[in-house]
Write a structure and sequence with these properties.
- By secondary structure, this protein is of the alpha/beta class.
- It contains eleven helices and nine strands.
- Strand 4, helix 7 and strand 5 form a beta-alpha-beta unit.
- Helix 1 packs across helix 2, helix 1 runs parallel beside helix 3 and helix 2 runs antiparallel to helix 3.
- The termini are far apart.
- Bound molecules: S-adenosylmethionine.
- The site of S-adenosylmethionine (SAM) has 24 residues, from helix 6 and helix 9.
- S-adenosylmethionine binds next to helix 6 and helix 9.
Amino acid sequence: MTSLGEVLRLSTEHLAAKGSETPRLDAERLLAKAVGLERIELYMALDRPLTPLELDAARVLVSRRARREPLQYVLGEWGFRRLTLTVDRRALIPRPETEVLVERALALLAGLDRPRVLDVGTGSGAIALAIADEHPGAVVTGLDCSVDALALAAENAARTGLAIELARHDLFRGLPDGPWDLIVSNPPYVDAADLPTLQPEVRDWEPHGALSAEGAVEAVVRGAVAVLALAGGLALEVGAGQTGATAALLQEFGLVEVRVTPDLRGIDRVVEGVRP
Ligand SMILES: C[S@@+](CC[C@H](N)C(=O)[O-])C[C@H]1O[C@@H](n2cnc3c(N)ncnc32)[C@H](O)[C@@H]1O
């Protein structure tokens, strides 16, 4: 009978050979899921043999990851702020840098009892749901052009028990009438020419419409200034190297108190401003 420790070692080697940058961590998370333990509990059970069913489950999960499917999609759920969300190919995987965007969004909402908030390009619903969770008075709408993403966001709203509105809307057609106290967005910001250079996990598995849409950042800014409330805030996540141009754009459109915040790796990432 193969022990958990042995399967962990073999899975780690296999994932490393297939190019995972975090083979040990991946193997631990996948095996924990296969045997129904917390990752930390694996270490107290390394000598325990796997049942044939557990071994089959582990094989399926590890071979999915070996094809460079993102760990998050294989696990089927991922943490974002205080929430655990369902994640799958219908939408982008929520990223740690987007948690910083939520942090700035919450700061812009400080002192408002029932602010109206619009999340443009809501994807899995991560930003909209985190704001609804952490600023309970907020009335939050998430919009997306993708029916698949909206279905996933609705599942996440049900899963977390948080009430948000969801709407199908194309951001290139302007933004829905406000006035909104806050507009927040992590728009597609990867240059289409850079898509082939991305990690296989991103390039081959995440929806390209969530990664890249030329002109989306400018369209969100242009749309936002038309529907923001007076003193309403706009907070955007953009790509590395795009914050300078985005901050200039916000100023060009008349927003004030323009500010840039770095992500957890120290890369300038979030740009915000306020309608005077
Ligand atoms: C970078 S993803 C962000 C997803 C989620 N907000 C997050 O931060 O994890 C961008 C989202 O914008 C949506 N999107 C792309 N083009 C759009 C458009 N023209 N109108 C509305 N949404 C769009 C995509 O479907 C995707 O869900």
